[in-house]
Amino acid sequence: MAARQPGRPLQLIQLNMEERKVEVNEDALGRLEKRLRELGATAVAVVSVMGAFRTGKSFLLDLFLRFLRWEADHPSEAAEAAQAEAPARGGDEEFPLPSWITAAGAALEGASDDSEGFRFKGGMDACTEGIWIWSEPFMRKIEDREVAVLLMDTQGAWDSNMTKEQSATIFGLTAVLSSKQIYNINMQIQEDKVENLAYFMRFAQAALNKAAAEMERQGQGPSRDDIDRPFQSLDFLVRDWRHFRDDWTVEQCKDQMQQHLSRHVNPQKMVENSTAEALHAMFKRLNCFCLPHPGLIIEKDTWSGNVSDINKDFIRFMDLYVRDVFSTGLSTKKILGSELSTMSFPLVLRDFVSAFHEAAPAAMSFTQAMTNCTVLLAKEQAMKSFTKKMDEEAQRHPRGIKPEEFEELSRSITQQLEDDFKSVTIFGSDETRKDTWKEILENLKSLHGRYAEENSRRLEKVLVSFASWCLLGLALFILDRLSDWVCDWWSTTCAEASKVAMMGYSVIAVYVGFHAYLAYHDQGRLAVVMAGGELWKEMVRLMGVYGQLIQEMNFKELQENIQKALKPVLKPDSGESNAASNKKED
Amino acid sequence: MAARQPGRPLQLIQLNMEERKVEVNEDALGRLEKRLRELGATAVAVVSVMGAFRTGKSFLLDLFLRFLRWEADHPSEAAEAAQAEAPARGGDEEFPLPSWITAAGAALEGASDDSEGFRFKGGMDACTEGIWIWSEPFMRKIEDREVAVLLMDTQGAWDSNMTKEQSATIFGLTAVLSSKQIYNINMQIQEDKVENLAYFMRFAQAALNKAAAEMERQGQGPSRDDIDRPFQSLDFLVRDWRHFRDDWTVEQCKDQMQQHLSRHVNPQKMVENSTAEALHAMFKRLNCFCLPHPGLIIEKDTWSGNVSDINKDFIRFMDLYVRDVFSTGLSTKKILGSELSTMSFPLVLRDFVSAFHEAAPAAMSFTQAMTNCTVLLAKEQAMKSFTKKMDEEAQRHPRGIKPEEFEELSRSITQQLEDDFKSVTIFGSDETRKDTWKEILENLKSLHGRYAEENSRRLEKVLVSFASWCLLGLALFILDRLSDWVCDWWSTTCAEASKVAMMGYSVIAVYVGFHAYLAYHDQGRLAVVMAGGELWKEMVRLMGVYGQLIQEMNFKELQENIQKALKPVLKPDSGESNAASNKKED
What sequence ranges are listed for the domain GB1/RHD3-type G (chains A, B) (predicted)? Predict the structure, then answer.
């Protein structure tokens, strides 16, 4: 195993503002890849920190670094410290500075401009851009295996300096790559913060879904559970927590953390729980840890990084947290069911950057999403009501209505929809509303065309329902003519029947003729000719149908029926049917 | 004017958790109405505070109350204090406690359980539910008029104890009712906080839009600008601001506030500026004010409310802010262009509570909105591609394809869409994705039916394009027969022409017959009969068209042409045309 190097932060993912996208820094990735190979670990675990800008993410990571370095350099002391008991909280004894925090010197690294730690400084400008990773992995035992632990720092969220696509990619990538994701939040868990986190996780899930679909196509699909619960461990880390009472023990404080978590992330305790449920469904492990305020001096631009300025209660909980993160709470990174190795890490990173690019166009701000959502719903709603109303009218007039009446109907339905549209909730400016209505009108136009065509077809079919009668009439007519030649001159029965037939087809002719006249009166000569054509087509079709029925009757059913009827009488003459009948007799 | 009463907080709007809605507290509204009448002011101005839970909104309002009471009780001192110069910031002199903060006693009201102020206390539970208003309006001069100033406190946002509909209603109502809205935020302005604010404002705008549509229907529509820019003044009030340097003057601090605002709300300086643009479009005035941390003691449960514990720098900026809010920055409340009077305030409140109820079903969380949006888009996309592909196929086969081929085509397009769907970004669980696909399939089914019908109609029309040829053939046939009787026996020319005609119609018959045979071969006997029917219909239609053309030719154009041609030859015989021709000759 190679010797530990001091390490420095590497910018693994950078922003390309010109093309408004996110890129892998191949140089940095190459260095990390080389270092992972040298260390010879098989698996990796990734601890990442994300959250709003300027909320002390890098400060936290610097403390993590101190802890990991100290543990690596002083393994025996570390084992001792892990067993040692700290003075109880709420008592008179002050919490002593743990060795890991003081061993590397009195000042924290990131406060100055050197590259000893993740850069953090007081001041208004956010420090971290893209995704950074500590170049030196820490080799730790996880479930009895040597695992390379990577520390990851992400750009502050909601700093108004990334596009929606970029932030969705950065935070989605962080989620996909981390075995433990620390969501750093200020003061308290809030519904909006949970909501924003869930948004990024959903985005990451969408990218994972694509990857899973690709794997399925290649015949090596991950299990359903690996897709539905794609993420491992999430910690809500609440900073500047105000609610630990001075006289509480650590256990009481931990209870309060759990209460706080469950109030905002427990689906059973919430009024609106869909997001909480989604988070529980996506992560294997959800946790909450609260850190008190480290003291107002730390926040000033002028702070030198001196460790002794940090509030002791903060250090007590920090000490607890750092042990939780790297000892109890860590597992190796798995993506879609397969463990990430030091070999596959770079490949997976590249793959997902491009997967996120494909998913990125779906990234939206909340108000954009609401605008799109209400606009799409309004469009769908308008189409549906138009279709419904037109279908109702069509049912009421199965033989169609006159073209000018149809136009009038369509106009009045459109007017009604416009009135309804005025009270539809659309998120957005007046312009959005106008544009939406314009698009609806366009869609209605094509629907209108379709219904107009259907109506004219109905009009043409005005005589179609008489096809059976006409066929009957035609048959009677032919019978009458036939009987004229064949039997009328010698059989009175025939002559009588012939008269009845004539009466029949005359009545039918008058009846159909009357309806044809009505149609002529309503719709003009051409329409009647068209309707006559349709009537003729329908009669031909019916003849075909009846003809086929008769044929089928003759050649299949009749034959079978006759055969069945004759079976007991005739002797079976083939061996097979013999056997069958033998069986029956058994 | 009635004498000032001490006042107490009234819960104007309360939550009804059983019905998951929001209600007007009629009792409280009645009291307020009565008090407004007694005071006899014509206009009102409403100052409201909204923001996340437990971020010190009520604490702020208590300080406002102290200031307003003191000003009302000590008008001359107040005028003096407004002119007095405070010691410069950054110097050695400490900021003296202003009289308004000390005059009413050493402890703030809300810290205890009495009802002297808006209830605020340290601790984890949020205090304010619904919307509260101070029962005693403060009469102040705004633009030389006596205006009743109302103080409004709203429930903390994102506390996981309201439904989406309730929070949208509460914060939307606050926006609609306020002439100055103070958005209280912790630490810094962030993109997500601006986004969340914009969401509530969009919601309120949607309710206002409905109200405006209603007014338009009654013929008294407000102006376009009053609808598009419906809100008056918004202050981002940043609490616990960390970035004022100790040696800066107040002016330098104010510059920093402006910089901070423009970084997150100035559309010109932002990467994603649609939300910032929307906010600028909705508000007449946007501002930012930062207050430093009031000191860690204040945050403890155990704080007694003692004024002298409050950080002096906080009080300096508080003093500046309170004067800005109630002196320079306040105007009377206008809704949709008309000023709210003490009479109309209760009516408007009731109206908007019900308007918000109607709009409430559109309220969604961010992830819900994204889910709905991606689902609706995926559905729209699938329908569009199916239609597009089917239309392309239809164009390629204008005479239709065999039913079994059509089924195969439809199946393969659906399969293709399913493959595409796998890589569509859907926000949501696997179940959402499955449900979406199911809905798409259902929609495709109805589209499939429509296209299948269209295809079979195309199949029937396979011979329609020969209608003109058939008509020509028929005409030739008739001519041939006619000539047989009329002239073939005495004229060789006639006999020759007759032969040519016979050749013509024979060729046409063979040509059409061949195509009919092809159709028979492809689609069977029934289809050919149907196609024959369609061909006949088309021929009849064409005869109609040609007949009409000939008629029009004969009776209009021909006559006119002949008349025109004959005009110079024949003498005009009517007086009118005489006059016309005389005029022409002049």
Answer: 41-330
